[in-house]
């Protein structure tokens, strides 16, 4: 039988169940697990420059990956870029600057993603009996698009695996990659070497800029590719009559997924229900859903406490 309900689940859903799955929890883990990497994040990613991130809790980590401070990386490592005219210059140091830039890029891309996956797989999930704030309104027979890596839907609510798409990977499957990244498409930004007069630039800087260009590709969330790889799931949305958004920020980094959903449904008939933490959040959530061309009269907001 075709499903008529779609649940879109974000990290706020797990947090509602008091699961330690926030980026602030990852921050604590990383500081203890890899102090050097933690300091690189603090030094070069604007994880603390966000109005919605109180107490430097890293809530904008994915967006911050796309806003890495290139200028500060170059300036802070300029000690490895001495003049060829310096009396202590040695040919053996010709690649020192590029090496340091490459080390930072690898740390803030592959190594950070590896530590993130390690942390995710350590998150403890409560049982159906012990889970706090368990919702009474979830329909396990609906379709579930979850942005969470955890097994909360299965463990706490017995939602069948066949009904669930873990769009960014699943912690219980150790051989699969977990997706973490920004939404800046590599083709939307010019190469750092794309400017007049670049031919007169120090070759060491040119090589370092190419390494930094690669960083943006390495940390990009390939949402279009992910959607294509899961096209069978999105094709099942044609009969959806109700959509529930539980715990997702509706942020820009995941815009492509919502646009794909909207393109598959009958947008003029599908009712949306958005869970909000506080009444002050309601206008923002309504505006974010409305930006996907959802008719205002089909958008309903509820507080978590009523679910």
Please provide a written account of the structure.
With 307 residues, the chain is α/β, with parallel strands linked by helices. The chain is built from 12 helices and 6 strands. The protein has helices at residues 11-16, 23-33, 35-44, 61-65, 70-76, 96-120, 152-157, 203-218, 223-229, 231-235, 255-264, 282-290, and strands spanning 5-9, 143-146, 164-166, 242-246, 271-276, 299-303. The model has no long low-confidence stretch (mean pLDDT 91).
In short:
With 307 residues, the chain is α/β, with parallel strands linked by helices. It has twelve helices and six strands.
Number of domains: 2
Query: Over the alpha carbons, how many angstroms does the gyration radius reach?
Result: 22 Å
Question: Based on DSSP secondary structure assignment, what is the total number of beta strands?
Answer: 6
Number of helices: 12
The share of residues in helices is 25-40%
Beta-strand residue percentage: 5-15%
Q: Secondary-structure element order, as H and E?
A: EHHHHHHEHEHHHEHEHE
Spatial sequence of strands, sheet with the most strands: 3-2-1-4-5-6
Distance from first to last alpha carbon: 26 Å
Biggest pleated sheet: 6 strands, parallel
**Mind telling me which CATH architecture of the largest domain this is?**
3-Layer(aba) Sandwich
- CATH class of the largest domain, named Alpha Beta
Q: Which outline best applies?
A: elongated
Overall average residue pLDDT: 91
